[in-house]
Amino acid sequence: MPKVGLLPEEFQRGPSGIDVRKTNFPFVEKLLYCAPNQTNKHMSINKDVKRMTTHVIQSMKEQGEKVTMLTAYDYSMARILDEAGIDILLVGDSASNVMAGHETTLPITLDQMIYHASSVVRAVKRALVVVDLPFGSYQGNSRIALESTIRIMKESGAHAIKLEGGAEIEESIRRILSAGVPVMGHLGLTPQSIYKFGTYTVRAREEAEAAKLLEDAQLLQDLGCFALVLEKIPAHLAAKVAQRVDIPVIGIGAGPEVDGQVLVTHDMLGITKDFKPRFLRRYLELFEEMRKAAQQYKEDVRSGDFPNEKEQY
Ligand code: KIV
After folding, report:
1. How far is C-alpha 289 from the geometric centre of its chain's CA atoms?
2. Nearest CA to ligand 1 atom 8
3. Would you give the DSSP letter of residue 133?
4. Where are the domains of the chain?
5. Which of 121, 174, 286, 295 has the fewest CB atoms within 10 Å distance of its CB?
6. Which residues line ligand 1 (CB under 6 A)?
7. Domain 53-282 belongs to what topology?
């Protein structure tokens, strides 16, 4: 185990060789960096970090270390993902689809997002928890956006918020940032605008839309967003954005040349049975596994096999 606790001269170089005195890391993060005799170019920056912060995420981009993000909506799943070392848990408004069974993300409410977020926060020891501002909770004006953000931060204990859009929501982003809340942007396919797009197909294939996306990415960085999600856009465009902006770009269906990846956990675990877009890699087929387990339980109860003599008092 690397030794932690530093700040005397000889301890001021982090595991990746960054001089932590020159970073804008808060004092507490400096304390989490290991001693120089453990320094190694191939060591992971985030491996020794006890608590992910927006600053650590930024330094991962600077060191070329990929950021991992998955969605979480409840305590039990969040515990598993946090123990697996996932850097960011996104309480996505995709909860509207995968948890509540709605066709779109539009119906989920601010109260419901706060319920999901507070369950996730209770589970997490290390990951950064980012919460989606749901549809209708920020588009009205910047005051509504700030009020919704404050409710999420106060009532759930989350660490940052995410919202969809670029120049159209500039004022809201400014106001949220000026209240001291970290903001993650989201461009490309923005599911809250599904009725404007009409389909869930790849965005920004056309030159004009690609140019607008590049401008919006730059704007989000200039405003002070700490990271940016790019959803379902051509890989070459996502790579261009990731090269142009200094903030971490996290892709979903945006190819490999970005700074990190995000997936909806229920999709990558195969719990959502029929959703199989090209960009998705399924690590398990849990729908089938869980169906079989439930069927076995039913058979065991009916046959009298469960509970047996060891499973009673
Ligand atoms: O709500 C969500 O799950 C998301 C991800 C797809 C990025 O926004």
Report:
1. 26
2. 92
3. P
4. 9-46, 53-282
5. 295
6. 71, 90, 92-94, 132, 229, 231, 252, 262, 264
7. TIM Barrel (3.20.20)
Distance 28 CA to ligand 1 centre (A): 30
Find the catalytic residue in 209, 231, 257, 299: 231
Give the Å distance between the CA of 207 and the centre of ligand 1: 25
Tens-level pLDDT at each residue, the chain (313 residues): 333 333 333 333 333 333 333 344 443 343 343 333 343 455 677 777 899 999 999 999 999 999 999 999 999 999 999 999 999 999 999 999 999 999 999 999 999 999 999 999 999 999 999 999 999 999 999 999 999 999 999 999 999 999 999 999 999 999 999 999 999 999 999 999 999 999 999 999 999 999 999 999 999 999 999 999 999 999 999 999 999 999 999 999 999 999 999 999 999 999 998 899 999 999 999 999 999 999 999 999 999 999 999 999 9
Active site (annotated) includes residue 231 = yes
Report CA(42)–ligand 1 centroid distance (Å): 31
Kindly give the interhelix angle for 170-178 and 207-223, rounded to the nearest 10 degrees. Answer: 20
Structure tokens at 309: 């003599």
Which amino acid is located at 201 in the chain? T
**Ligand 1 centroid distance, CA of 46 (Å):** 23
For a mutational test of ligand 1's pocket, the pick from 68, 81, 97, 105, i.e. the residue with the most ligand atoms closer than 8 A to its C-beta, is 105
- Is the distance from CB of 146 to CB of 175 less than 8 angstroms? yes
